[in-house]
Amino acid sequence: TLVESETPEKTVVRVEKVTDGDTFVASQGDKQFDVRLLLVDTPESKGDYKNNPQAYSQEASQYTTDMVLGKDVTLYLDSKTTHGRKLAFVEVAGQSLQESLLREGLGKVRQYDTNYTEIGNELYNIEEDAYEDGRGVWSNPGNAVPRSNTGFVR
CA-CA distance, 74 to 53, in Å (whole number)? Predict the structure, then answer.
């Protein structure tokens, strides 16, 4: 796949806890670490947003929980980390978590790293379909801007 050809390392982990729609805690042997999805951002409900969660943040967290919690998933790891979290494309049962969140309208593409332009373009196409159908975050005009590298409004 395109993801396999563009990422340096592939590994299988068990998901122990979902932090939010785009972050979870994984274990491998006796090691635990945080994983952040590459190229996809979901609405926030933690930290500064705890008392004022962004629209669809709980739905995104629940969707990710339903897809990966307690399951073995494949990580296609980037060589970088952010805020102590490993960055990865995630597959569960052969299905891309990033693509699934975007298809449901529960996230948007955030292309921080231009190393993944081709994958980013594929994800933007999925985002565009959800936007045109008004799914999830795209059902609320002004909640986010499609095909942009900006986040969600509060």
Answer: 29
Scanning the structure block, which residue is given the tokens 């629940």? 62
The pTM for the full model equals 0.89
Report d(CA 13, CA 25) in Å as an integer.
Answer: 10
Residue range 18-66, pLDDT digits in tens? 999 999 999 999 999 999 999 999 998 877 778 888 888 999 999 999 9
End-to-end distance of the chain based on CA atoms, in angstroms? 36
Active-site annotation holder among 36, 91, 110, 122: 36
* Active-site choice (44, 59, 122, 127): 44
Question: Is 36 one of the catalytic residues?
Answer: yes
Q: Can you tell me the distance from the alpha carbon of 144 to that of 53, in angstroms, rounded to the nearest whole number?
A: 14
- Give how far Cα 57 sits from Cα of 3, 32, 47, 145, Å: 26, 24, 13, 16
Catalytic-role residue among 6, 14, 85, 128: 85
Phi, psi (degrees; rounded to nearest 5) at 118? -65, -45
* Annotated catalytic residue 14: no
